[in-house]
């Protein structure tokens, strides 16, 4: 049956001018050859696209910021990509301390817009990640011990469902959809078009820090970090990265929502470890502090492909885990952004019960991810195997995995991403998308 509904918005079919730019994701490994892209200008364009795709039996992929870290999530060969990135309204309501943002915004644009008006919104390590995809998966970053995850601040949403109907969810109506959208992951229930977040006043100034150590001190630094970062002030967020042996170093970036003097006091246990090669600690107006933490990360010039895997640590790594970490870092390609990344957990994240939102992994001490990366497509297979084999080796020392940093090598991944929330997520899926129209290789199947 041919659809009576026409595609509306900015529509680009395969072969049209702009098609190659339209299909460029952040990670070239995730680029595909969809049949058509719809750059929605308004919610109605999303609804029309869904109806058209279903009538023409074309698979759908929602897309916002193009930062998917696995394949076939926000693009698929022969499919219709419903891209919200041209829907970018941001409305701050100071009286109610809320902000309504259209899902085409990138995280950095929201952070910047709010900071200029004296408000703060949580963010991760990249300004160009889309709020559309990061929010339903959780949204982790250096402010989270104060603000909670990005999804913990989501209080209402607008979504277009598989029939093209506009659905609104909040605590009062469709509260099960709101629950599922706070950690259940993008691409599962429909296409989100608007999110309403609660927001807080930003501090006037904040302390930020960037510290580095030589690569060969990574075991000493990571061990000290794992014993310090989860237990220090909950106003302190710390991202610790360890690069590949070839050309990499150890670096720590983060923020303390308070004075420089106090920041130095809280940082002392980690600054006194090893021999730091750089120690940049500043007390900046809040807007500049966010710029310090969110270095530009443009999408269209990114050359590296990646295989990520992620999990959570409840205890410091034992010697065996350090051995596997070292093996990985020695094998990873040089000159590419491969490595390990840790983020301290606790504080506001832990104050929410694991079943209160779809985001289950509340009690660990830290988050950990690692990625191999490559430029030449012929290097893909061995790098994918490297990251996935490392997961097998590290499995005894971690729990779970973060749906926004997925690894399609994980078998029976539902409980790994969602813990004990998986069964309820499947029931919510059955209610809002019983025919599994919104599916991808890691999506939640409807309950039977
Ligand atoms: C450089 C980089 C840095 C990152 N840093 C962090 C970080 O610090 N913290 C963190 O938590 N995560 C981080 N991530 C992971 C990121 O949260 C996920 O990749 C996220 O899914 C990206 O969302 P997107 O909208 O940019 O991506 P897209 O590729 O557009 O979409 C990703 C997924 O979300 C779905 N989706 C997107 N928009 C919608 C929508 N409107 N409605 C329904 N589903 C939608 C897609 O279908 C797809 O499944 C990072 C990723 C990259 C590449």
Report on this model:
- The two termini are 28 Å apart.
- The strands form four sheets. The chain has a seven-stranded antiparallel β-sheet.
- It has 13 helices and 18 strands.
- It folds into three domains: 10-83, Uridine Diphospho-n-acetylenolpyruvylglucosamine Reductase, domain 2; 90-202 and 420-431, 2-Layer Sandwich (Uridine Diphospho-n-acetylenolpyruvylglucosamine Reductase, domain 3), CATH 3.30.465.10; 205-397, Vanillyl-alcohol Oxidase, Chain A, domain 3, CATH 3.40.462.
- The chain is an alpha+beta fold and 448 residues long.
- Bound molecules: flavin-adenine dinucleotide (FAD).
- Residues 26, 61-69, 73-74, 84, 103, 124-126, 129-130, 132-134, 137-141, 186-187, 191-192, 297, 404-405, 440 line the site of flavin-adenine dinucleotide (FAD).
């Amino acid at each position: 049956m041919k659809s009576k509904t026409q595609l509306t918005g900015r529509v680009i079919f395969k072969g049209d001018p702009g098609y190659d730019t339209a299909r460029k994701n952040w990670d070239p490994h995730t680029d595909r050859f969809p049949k058509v892209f719809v750059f929605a200008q308004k919610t109605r364009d999303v609804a029309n696209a869904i109806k058209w795709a279903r009538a023409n039996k074309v698979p759908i992929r929602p897309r916002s910021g193009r930062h998917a870290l696995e394949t076939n999530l926000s693009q698929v060969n022969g499919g219709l990509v419903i891209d919200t990135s041209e829907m970018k309204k941001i409305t701050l309501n100071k009286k109610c301390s809320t902000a309504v943002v259209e899902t085409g915004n990138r995280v950095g644009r929201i952070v910047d817009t709010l900071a200029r008006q004296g408000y703060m919104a949580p963010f991760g390590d990249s300004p160009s990640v889309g709020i559309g995809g990061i929010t339903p998966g959780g949204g982790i970053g250096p402010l989270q011990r104060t603000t909670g995850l990005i999804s913990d601040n989501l209080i209402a949403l607008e979504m277009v469902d598989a029939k093209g109907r506009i659905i609104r969810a909040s605590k009062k109506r469709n509260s099960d959809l709101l629950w599922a959208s706070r950690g259940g992951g993008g691409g599962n229930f429909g296409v989100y078009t608007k999110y309403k977040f609660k927001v807080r006043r930003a501090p006037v100034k904040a302390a930020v820090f960037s510290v580095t150590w030589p690569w060969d001190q990574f075991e000493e630094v990571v061990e000290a970090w794992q014993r310090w970062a989860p237990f220090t002030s909950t106003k302190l967020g710390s991202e610790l990265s360890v690069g590949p042996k070839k050309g990499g170093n150890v670096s720590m970036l983060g923020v303390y929502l308070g004075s420089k003097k106090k920041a130095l006091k809280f940082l002392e246990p980690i600054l006194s470890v090893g021999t730091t090669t750089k120690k940049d600690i500043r007390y900046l107006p809040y807007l500049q502090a966010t710029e310090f933490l969110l270095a530009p990360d443009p999408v269209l010039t990114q050359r590296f492909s990646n295989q990520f895997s992620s999990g959570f640590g409840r205890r410091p790594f034992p010697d065996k885990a350090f051995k596997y970490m070292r093996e990985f870092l020695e094998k990873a390609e040089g000159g590419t952004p491969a490595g390990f990344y840790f983020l301290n957990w606790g504080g506001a994240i832990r104050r929410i019960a694991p079943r209160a939102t779809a985001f289950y992994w509340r009690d660990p001490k830290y988050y950990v991810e690692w990625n191999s990366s490559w430029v030449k497509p012929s290097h893909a297979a061995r790098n994918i195997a490297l990251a996935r084999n490392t997961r097998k080796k590290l499995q005894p020392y971690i729990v779970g995995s973060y749906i926004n940093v997925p690894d399609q090598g994980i078998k029976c991944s539902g409980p790994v991403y969602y813990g004990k929330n998986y069964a309820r997520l499947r029931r919510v899926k059955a209610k809002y998308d019983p025919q599994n129209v919104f599916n991808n290789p890691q999506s939640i199947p409807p309950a039977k």
